[in-house]
Q: What sequence folds into this?
């Protein structure tokens, strides 16, 4: 690692996506419990995930611009504080209000705003810290993405365990995790001074527009892959959580452990991929191709094995392997190929794209679970091959930045 960057700095950066992942994914195995406690249906419970993501989508580009103009740390710290407050709002409402569903959604919106200014800003921060060393940047991004996916592994187990004590404890846990990460960031992340003059907002918009004019073809494909992978991941997690409890009678920590299996595969794949891709665009392109082929082939089978948990878990784990390889690759492609002045904005727009998938996955699958699940899973697989064609068409290392 770069001698100027301490291990604690890397741990502090990795804690941010870990907290944000726990703040969202931890609630997925608990949604059926929320339905019982709040007297709501599956679609309404999916909104607890969706409103968080929609709030993040709306604010992420603004947070990216602010981080470019005023500094990464000055945006991350208030955002973590906002996430902490959102957890308290949702948790206290669950205790003190007779019908707390709306207040829970308000708390989740606040957490979504916090997520917008925290996790997405980590990517350009890594690029700033390793601006002269693409290989080390890729390795660090692999650690960051692994932290993100490790949070996904822990989240169903932690969420189920906490909810088994009292159903609303996960909301308070999010506040505690945010506080710990905030302390880490405040004390251990030392952002290099940037004495370069800042552009006006008008110039910023012109530069961003020019970046998309120049790099748009491959950037749009990367954004599309980010949406697709997150949509498939969160749709499958919501689907597994629902059928394990309602059709197979598996709940609590046992259900959390089962949900963690494909996420553990995803986590390992992210760690290995982050160490291997370095700054080789040809390797990145090949990973994208192989990952999309795996997803396109296996996603259609998800809708046909709801009665066989073992096969469904195997399919989900292989899909998790593909997603785990794709995520750090996408991070590296954007972080290492966009100039510093626009890096925060472009990576933030990419993060917004990923949150679109997170927001859409649970409510869509909750609707299609009632009717048309098999046809929907087949169409999702075909969509993966459609994106694959875009990779062959628009991502060409000899023509890409």
A:
């Amino acid at each position: 690692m770069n001698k100027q960057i301490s291990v604690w700095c890397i741990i502090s950066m990795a804690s941010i996506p870990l907290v944000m992942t726990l703040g969202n994914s931890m609630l997925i195995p608990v949604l059926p419990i929320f339905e019982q406690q709040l007297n709501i249906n599956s679609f309404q419970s999916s909104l607890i995930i969706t409103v968080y993501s929609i709030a993040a989508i709306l604010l992420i580009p603004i947070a990216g611009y602010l981080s470019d103009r005023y500094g990464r740390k000055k945006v991350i710290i208030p955002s973590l504080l906002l996430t902490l407050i959102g957890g308290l709002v949702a948790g206290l409402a669950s205790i003190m209000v007779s019908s707390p569903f709306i207040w829970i959604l308000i708390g989740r919106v606040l957490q979504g705003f916090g997520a917008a200014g925290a996790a997405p800003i980590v990517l350009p921060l890594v690029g700033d810290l390793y601006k002269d060393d693409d290989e080390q940047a890729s390795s660090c991004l692999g650690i960051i993405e692994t932290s993100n996916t490790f949070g996904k592994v822990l989240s169903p187990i932690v969420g189920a365990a906490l909810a088994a004590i009292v159903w609303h404890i996960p909301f308070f846990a999010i506040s505690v995790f945010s506080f710990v990460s905030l302390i880490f960031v405040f004390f251990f992340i030392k952002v290099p001074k940037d004495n370069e003059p800042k552009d006006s907002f008008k110039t910023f918009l012109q530069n961003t527009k020019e970046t998309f004019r120049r790099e748009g073809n491959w950037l749009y494909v990367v954004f599309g892959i980010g949406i697709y992978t997150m949509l498939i991941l969160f749709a499958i997690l919501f689907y597994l959580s629902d059928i394990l409890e309602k059709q197979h009678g598996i709940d609590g920590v046992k259900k959390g452990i089962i949900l963690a299996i494909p996420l553990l595969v995803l986590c390992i794949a992210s760690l290995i991929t982050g160490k291997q891709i370095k700054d080789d665009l040809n390797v990145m392109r090949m990973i994208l191709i192989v990952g999309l082929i795996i997803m396109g082939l296996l996603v259609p089978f998800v809708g046909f094995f709801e009665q066989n948990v073992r096969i469904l878990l195997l399919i989900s784990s292989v899909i998790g392997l593909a997603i785990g390889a794709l995520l750090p690759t996408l991070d590296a492609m954007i972080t290492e190929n966009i100039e510093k002045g626009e890096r925060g904005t472009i990576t933030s727009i990419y993060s917004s794209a990923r949150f679109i998938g997170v927001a859409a996955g649970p409510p869509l699958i909750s609707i299609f679970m009632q009717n048309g699940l098999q046809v929907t899973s087949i169409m999702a697989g075909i969509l993966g091959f459609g994106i694959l064609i875009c990779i062959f068409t628009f991502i060409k290392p000899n023509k890409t930045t």
Q: What stands out?
A: The first helix runs from residue 7 to 25. The chain has a mean pLDDT of 86. The two ends are 25 Å apart (CA to CA). The chain has one domain: 7-191+198-394.
